[in-house]
Amino acid sequence: MRRLALRLCTLNKELLIPGRGLTQGFQNPEKQRVFHMHEACSPIHVNHVRDKLREIVGVSTNWRDHMKAMEERKLLQSFLAKSQEGLPPRRMKDSYIEVLLPLGSQPELREKYLTVQNTIRFGRILEDLDSLGVLICYMHTRVHAAKMSPLSIVTALVDKIDMCKTSLSPEQDIKFSGHVTWVGKTSMEVKMQMFQLHGNEFCPVLDATFVMVARDSENKGPAFVNPLIPESPEEEELFRQGELNKGRRVTFSATSLLKMAPSAEERTTIHEMFLNTLDPKTVSFRSRVLPPNAVWMENSKLKSLEVCHPQERNIFNRIFGGFLMRKAYELGWATACNFGGSRPFVVAVDDIMFQKPVEVGSLLFLSSQVCFTKDNYIQVRVHSEVASLESKEHMTTNVFHFTFMSEKEVPLVFPRTYGESMLYLDGKRHFNSMSVPVKLRKDFSEAP
Question: CA 123: distance to chain centroid?
Fold first, then answer.
């Protein structure tokens, strides 16, 4: 892994100045590698990421000019490859990027990321990860013959974000890094890490895996991306893991409770929960009572509404995916806080599927509820749907899954209907997919 880290530092000169090395991400918290500041590549500033994306895509910062800019992108269609074989292969180091969030050295940045409890807003981190993931993919798919990229790269899925047991301070610099680790015909997997400065060392904070898709210059159809060639056994392992991740996602989708009945074990779980809520004083399936220290799932809901203004648009004049994630996370955090009676912190984010784009001017409806609990863990599901101002028809755009941990044990959540039972089982599946349950640390708290 160390050899891989050293190779990844030689990124394109437009973004980075070559340095001596870096550490690759972490899988086992007990075997975390430490990122040494004196070995780092010179990163770009977090505020320049969106500017770089606008330059690559060729869009205007003014909303009134967006139609003209999108018309100009139609001329880029001729630069699109007819097949993947017609594109030059790329290496993992070609897409490697580091981004600096200098909260310590530039205190004026803190207010955007600061909570009232003097912690970092994780929703803002989600926005930064989303922008970085897109920029990484544009580095992988650069077309040197064109001033602007003919591709429209968008986030398709947040596969997994796993948190580490390290505290996040709003007074210390943060560094992001990442690169493409796997590609298909039109999709790319991106792995990103986040580090925070402690003393003179950058230490791991989180590990994230995003899946991006490439579309044509008008964002109307799929487009081919450059193949990826691993150069070492370590890179081959990363690529192989990407293949496994794809297979896991296919299997998870195929066994979705929206497509298949629950397993025998899951059916038994739901039936036992149902029996535990029957009133022992009556002989009736209709008389239901809650066991001690339990809450009906329907009583764990919170809802919100957002008007999608042009300020929150992305480079393709749709609503920025990072904004959607931030709003969903903040509502999910509030739901977990209200349910558990204490300030929770996030330990995992997974399976955020971007099903439909959100147009500027839409009404965004968010609905959040607790769907599974265990000990002091709270699994929260946030459902997002939109309606245009002209139409009352609602369409689902995203479903978000967040795993929180409370400072104390939380009540059990019980479904009352069959639909809620499916939500419970789905939440249990997502909770069980968490890599390694983390132990509560007093110095590690995350807020909206």
Answer: 10
pLDDT in tens, 224-281: 999 999 999 999 999 999 999 999 888 888 888 888 899 999 999 999 999 999 887 7
Q: What angle do CA 116, 120, 121 make, to 5 degrees?
A: 85
Nearest to 181 by CA among 132, 239, 236, 224: 239
Cβ-based neighbour number of residue 366 at 10 Å: 21
Query: How far apart are the C-alpha atoms of 147 and 412, rounded to whole Å?
Result: 56
* Calpha distance 183→137 (Å, rounded): 10
Query: Could you tell me how far CA 365 lies from the centroid of its own chain?
Result: 19
pLDDT tier, 46 (very low <50, low <70, confident <90, very high otherwise): very high
The answer to whether the beta carbons of residues 439 and 114 sit under 8 Å apart is: no
Q: What is the dihedral of CA 403, 348, 307, 155, to 10 degrees?
A: -140
Q: What's the gap between Cα 419 and its chain centre?
A: 26
* Rounded Cα gap, residues 260 and 254, in angstroms: 8
Cα dihedral angle (56, 61, 62, 64), rounded to 10 degrees? 30
pLDDT at 316 over 70: yes
Tell me how far apart the alpha carbons of residues 57 and 176 are, in angstroms, rounded to a whole number. Answer: 22
CA 296 remoteness from chain centre: 29
pLDDT of residue 73: 76
- Quote the pTM value: 0.83
- Please give the structure tokens belonging to residue 381: 């599901």
Decide: 393 and 387 in contact? Cβ < 8 Å: yes
Band of pLDDT at residue 313, cut at 50, 70 and 90: confident
Q: 4: how many CB neighbours lie within 10 A of its CB? A: 20
Rounded CA-CA distance 295/288 in Å is: 12
The answer to whether the CB of 37 falls within 8 A of the CB of 100 is no
Q: How far apart are CA 398 and CA 353, in angstroms?
A: 6
Q: Of 251, 297, 254, 280, give the one whose Cα is nearest residue 418.
A: 297
pLDDT in tens, 318-364: 888 889 999 999 999 999 999 998 889 899 998 888 888 888 888 99
Query: Within 10 Å of residue 205's Cβ, how many Cβ atoms?
Result: 23
